[in-house]
Amino acid sequence: MPYKLFMVILVLHYTAAEHYKIKPDFVKTCFKSDPEFDDCSKQAVQQLFNALGPGLPEIGMVPLDPLKIPKIRILQGDGPVNVNAALDDVIVSGFGDTEVLLSQVDGKSYSFYTKVRVPKIRIEGTYDLKGKILLIPLVGRGLCWFEPTNMTIDIVSDVKLYDKDEFVFFNVTGAHVKYTIGGLKLRMNNLFDGISSLEDSTNSYLNANWRPVSESLRPILSKTIEDILLGFLQQLFHNLPANFMIGDIKNNIKKSDKKV
Q1: In this prediction, what percent of the chain has a pLDDT beyond 70?
Q2: d(Cα 136, Cα 217) in Å, to the nearest integer?
Q3: Could you tell me if 248 and 33 are in contact, meaning their C-beta atoms sit under 8 angstroms apart?
Q4: Residue 134 main-chain phi, psi, to 5 deg
Q5: Residue pair 115/131 in contact by the 8 Å Cβ criterion
Q6: How far is CA 43 from the centre of its chain?
Q7: If you write DSSP's letter for every residue of the chain in order, what string do you get?
Q8: Cα 240 from Cα 234, distance rounded (Å)
Q9: What pLDDT score does 111 carry?
Q10: How confident is the prediction for the chain on average, in pLDDT?
């Protein structure tokens, strides 16, 4: 059954910055003409993730691990999940241990296909929830955490090229995510106004049934990951010339794609 309403509103703050004019040390340059391009690209993207962990303040990028998100708003109606929820002061940790499994770049569109593995992600914050998960009525406000483990994420990034200041840049216009997880643990404190028997039994039930819980939350988690990735990719590649990543990219850009 289609969802009547589905929305995730995620707020992240980035600061304006001047783009790199000299290739930074953490960037590895690959060439599409190289038969070993995919292997080189995998190493290059791994180096990017390693650099993004502590942040790149010189181009206005906040740390990826831990990642601080002021607000996430979730609205979803119908189906196994029907919630009106908010997460405030969210801290996401674990992306600093990302392992890049595969990195490919389309030779014509320059769209990225990336496959990564993250051993464990922890999401914690203050929740305000009214709705149902797996048909269980839930209401509460308090501290919460979620821990998906052994997460494999397939990412397809839509890209257009443009010229600026004698460099070529990636304009990332979309990010699409599919993922699998090997486990999920969670805890929501102060459910049902802190009635401990209901709170404990509900948390125990949700953890014991983590697979259907995970499936029911998939649209919400996918959209949240997509929004996080899109924000990071846009901020990164508006400030990191594509020439530094793909050395022969200039040979393939069209004059019509230039920005004035």
Answers
A1: 87
A2: 14
A3: yes
A4: 55, 40
A5: no
A6: 20
A7: ---SEEEEEEE------PPPSS--TT---B-TTSTTHHHHHHHHHHHHHHHHTT-BGGGTBPPSSSEEEEEEEEEEESSSEEEEEEEEEEEEE-GGG-EEEEEEE-TTT--EEEEEEEEE-EEEEEEEEEEEETTEEEEEEEEEEEEEEEEEEEEEEEEEEEEETTEEEEEEEEEEEEEE-SEEEEEETTBGGG-HHHHHHHHHHHHHTHHHHHHHHHHHHHHHHHHHHHHHHHHHHTTS-HHHHBTTGGGG--GGGB--
A8: 10
A9: 94
A10: 87
Say if residue 15's pLDDT is above 90. Answer: no
6 or 172, which is more confident: 172
Instruction: DSSP for 111-135, please give it.
Output: -EEEEEEEEE-EEEEEEEEEEEETT
Give CA–CA dist 140/74, Å, rounded: 15
pLDDT in tens, 21-40: 999 999 999 999 999 999 99
Measure CA of the first residue to CA of the last residue in the chain; give whole Å.
Answer: 47
Structure tokens belonging to residue 131 = 């709705």
Question: Residue 109's closest CA among 257, 210, 258?
Answer: 257
Is residue 104 predicted with pLDDT exceeding 90? yes
The pLDDT tens digits for 211-236 are: 998 888 888 888 888 888 898 899 99
